[in-house]
Amino acid sequence: MKKWIKKGMLVSLLFAVTLGFASTNNFGWNFVTWGNEDAREVPAEEIKKRITEEVVGPVSQLLDKQQPNLHMTKCYVRYTFDVYGIEADGLEKSDRKFYDYERLNGSVILDHCGSKDQVCKYKYNLGNSEFYVRESVFTDWMTIEEFKKQIEAREKTISE
Amino acid sequence: MFLAVNFCEVRVYRILQMRIRMRIVYYLLWFVVVFLACCLAGIALSYFDFDTTRHFLGAKQDMVHNRIWLSAFYVHLFFGAVATLTGIPLFFPRIVAFRSRLHKQLGRIYVFSILLLGGPTGLYLAFFAEGGSPATIGFILMSAAWIIPTYMAVAKIMKGDIQGHYNWMIRSYCMTMSGVTLRLLTPVGSRYIGFDENTNFILSAYVPWMFNLLLGELIVAFNRRRFTQLNLSK
């Protein structure tokens, strides 16, 4: 039994170390790329475009409707975002790779004259372009329609 | 004469009282270990809803697409939980007698879980750990510190060295429990000490297993006297 354990253990360890170099590891060395043949890498430019159009777009529309005077300043006001804390402007330079069925998360940010405020957190599924938002940890994740309804209800309460 | 008898009685009473206190502390500590082990196993098994977007997997979205990595992750979790739970009764001869068939069967499950599955998958996962190459080196050492004492415990019992087996099993189980230490120390580092994310990841690859290795050595040293009193013929 002991010999069997010894052999089994050595085979498992060798297997583990070999596989450790079969995909890009923390040392940056890999001789092949196994296990992720199905995964299509999505370039950072595409990620930027998709999040801008599919997440930031609807959220900013909602906010513009709520506060139409937001852009009436002499300084620069824009909506931007980050993915896993990486700012949109630095996405291309980042080492982070994205794959087509990844579920990204980050924040939609309002850059108001250089002062940055988080509008909401988002979760975006690259596979089916589904996204959820939430204002803070005290609120649940919701779809953009639910978010819209919540803001409208809040406005109604304030006006009453 | 009367005074001498009385003095002896007081001494015996004090020794008994100390022994009872030691027993209470011993069982209390074991209660904490069992509770934490169950929590660890519970956390591990909670991932078996196969939702790859939550908790730790939510932060490893760059790896969840890799089928080898994901399989290794689940194997590591499952057999880590098996080792954590099967290890506990092996230390209690009143529950599972040392020389019983059940002790051997549970021991085999524990050893196989670590040497063939949990340990090697941990080693593989180390290559992709959060915190970069310093964390990878830490987790590789952690895997080695988990596998080696377990292997030594098997080697000792094969040679019939029961005390050696018992001591190495203590070290091995301490390393199994380093999963608990990791989960206890990570929030301490991030929340109470205020380490940044990367520093915390790197430290969590070194501190838990070093701490538990030291703890194992202390228990072995403390147990040396106690071991002679253990009835291994049970």
Given as residue ranges, the uncertain stretches of chain A (5+ residues, pLDDT < 50) are none
Number of strands of chain B: 0
Main β sheet profile of chain A: 5 strands, antiparallel
| Mean pLDDT level of chain A | 83
- The oligomeric state is heterodimer
Briefly note the structural class of the backbone of chain B: mainly alpha
Percent of residues of chain A in beta strands?
Answer: 15-25%
**Average pLDDT figure of chain B:** 87
| Class derived from helix and strand content of chain A | alpha+beta
Which strand order does the major sheet of chain A show? Answer: 3-2-5-6-7
Spatial shape of chain B: globular
Offer a concise description of the structure.
The complex is a heterodimer of chains A (160) and B (234). Chain A has 3 helices and 7 strands, in the order αβαββββββα.
Lay out the secondary structure:
The complex is a heterodimer of chains A (160) and B (234).
Chain A: H1 2-20, E1 41-42, H2 44-66, E2 77-83, E3 86-87, E4 98-99, E5 103-112, E6 115-125, E7 130-134, H3 144-159
Antiparallel strand pairs in A: 1-4, 2-3, 2-5, 5-6, 6-7
Helix pairs in contact in A: 2-3
Chain B: H1 2-46, H2 55-59, H3 67-87, H4 101-126, H5 132-158, H6 162-176, H7 178-193, H8 197-227
Helix pairs in contact in B: 1-3, 3-4, 4-5, 5-6, 5-8, 6-8, 7-8
Keywords for this entry:
heterodimer; A: 160 residues; alpha+beta; 5-stranded antiparallel sheet; 3 helices; 7 strands; 36% helix; elongated; B: 234 residues; mainly alpha; 79% helix; globular
What do you see in this structure?
The complex is a heterodimer of chains A (160) and B (234). Chain A has 160 residues and is an alpha+beta fold. Chain A has helices at 2-20, 44-66, 144-159; strands at residues 41-42, 77-83, 86-87, 98-99, 103-112, 115-125, 130-134. A five-stranded antiparallel sheet of chain A has the order 3-2-5-6-7, with helices on one face. A two-stranded antiparallel ribbon of chain A has the order 1-4. In chain A, a hairpin with a 4-residue loop joins β6 and β7. Chain A starts with a helix and ends with a helix. Helices cover 79% and strands 0% of the residues of chain B. Chain B contains eight helices and no strands. Chains A and B meet through α1, β4 and β5 of A and α3, α4 and α5 of B.
